[in-house]
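How a chain folds remains the central question behind the approach discussed here. In the encoding step, the backbone of a single protein was reduced to a row of integers, each denoting a local shape. We regard such an encoding as a compact summary of how the chain folds. The sequence in question and its structure tokens are set out directly beneath this paragraph:

___
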Amino acid sequence: MRKSCDDEKGNEEPLALSGKVISHSEYKNSGSDSTRLTSGSLSSCADYRSDAAAKKLFIKHINAGFNCCPDSLYCAVKMSNDIIIIKEPLSLARCAALDRASMETLIDAFQP
């Protein structure tokens, strides 16, 4: 009789992740023209660090583009296969302007 990988794992439920925005930078286009973004600084990227013992993953979204006047910033985190998906929706915006800032998210119950 053949045994599958699923048989060896048992009936373990996938670990539910939770996340929250823990910090964000100042908006980059606010202020005088000398602080305006240049064409080379528009790239968006992510940087991360983890604390395996505490089961925490910190992800910093650099140059995230969003409304500069949200009521609050929050995130929704889920795992699909081996991919962590972070959605960064905004609550009610108080203006129509878009801007860039860096935002750091903490993901709990992370197992590397």
In short: The radius of gyration is 19 Å.
